[in-house]
């Protein structure tokens, strides 16, 4: 789809394009976010010690699709004050991955789900005050946070591309072999070729096309196991607290703090959607509604074993590219995801994707997250003050994550916060930005 697809009326969120346009546009939104949506679930499943491709991982992938769709419906259709009623696509948030992997590994999935539900409720409550918190997150802070998320996750992509990690019970002697790197590199090369040498839906789904190409190569190398597909059902409803529900403050506090960052991210995506699609600023009502939908979507997902949701920036880019602001187009995308989430065989098929193939995709995705942060920071005046804030925040935040034993004597909650990577960076940056005087 190109700018010529859009009709001037399509810039009205309440306009319904003809199905001949609406269905392909909705599918385009799904393809653009599909790989990014399911990847966090696979990563957290691995940290929790779930067998790669096993029933628990399949279920998490299934919930990622189902509740991305449900949360998107909260945004596009709305319930009372909930929902921006804009074409905002929701998906599983990468921002929480750094914290949730630590919680899953140390405290278990019951603590993960308890933290997600509580953080979702807190996130929902932020909808009434989000406008007054925006001053805490100027572009320098937001860009730094996004950069930190990308830098924290990049090593995960390299480990996956080389063959996985101990949590996935991969053979140590095969780690780094060509049998792993060739499928991973296939994903990267094909994704780049499709992104820059094609247009429209195909270009928007470049990562997904790359993953399919890498998957085919992995089949040729004999590293794909289809055993789980036959065991999966054709239809299944989600379960209430399938991993239990535990309130552990060592999990709750960091996840709640990340929810604040996620809320600010949604404010940015809401503004980008209206600016790119309709050439106007988002209203206070739209921003509040988007934040309510974010929190409600995450809390509901946690009840059924899903991970937190947030708005997806790449889909805001699609709105800007096509000029189609119709929320009904994204509603179609949401219904596609809900249908996928109710069919476990789809989740089982995704879970057969070998780690090297996934690694090739996430190297690109995580690198793009870091690049987005750098892009935001490029708009910040690099004064000595701002450079000191960036330097100290990154050094301490990522340093403690890389050397967790440096704070091994901190009690549970503080230890989890300190080694999360994201939270120390964000807290130090916000504090210094408020304390240090502006340079004259």
UniProtKB/TrEMBL annotation:
It is found in: Cell membrane. It comes from the Bacteria. The chain crosses the membrane at residues 30-52, 59-82, 94-124, 136-158, 178-197, 204-227, 247-267, 329-351, 357-377, 389-410, 416-436. GO terms for cellular component: plasma membrane. Pfam families: Xan_ur_permease. It is a multi-pass membrane protein. InterPro entries: NCS2, UacT-like, Xan_ur_permease. PROSITE patterns: XANTH_URACIL_PERMASE. Keywords: Cell membrane, Membrane, Transmembrane, Transmembrane helix, Transport. Its main location: membrane. GO terms for molecular function: xanthine transmembrane transporter activity. Belongs to the nucleobase:cation symporter-2 (NCS2) (TC 2.A.40) family. NCBIfam families: ncs2, NCS2_1, pbuX. This is Uracil permease. It comes from Actibacterium mucosum KCTC 23349.
